[in-house]
Amino acid sequence: MSILKKPLITEKYTAISEKLNKYGFVVAKTASKDEIKKAVESMYGVKVTGINTMVYQGKSKTRFTKRGVFSGRKASFKKAVVTLEEGQKIDFFQNI
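Request: output the structure for the sequence above.
Response:
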């Protein structure tokens, strides 16, 4: 099971990464802060100084169609915000 599922690349996290040197990731729900730290350091070759995690509940969604009303839920997920040492950087687009 992979601990890091995907990086969060949004306008908000791009601004935070440029200003505060923090990066966001969607991680496995069972991952601890130590496991996240080791995974980020080994995958990107950087030094992590801090981690904040939060668990988001799945939202309920309703769609109105010709066949009637369909309702369901989106999946819940865990998000980690990783702070790096001064002068270090992660480039998500280097292999494109």
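The chain has a mean pLDDT of 93.
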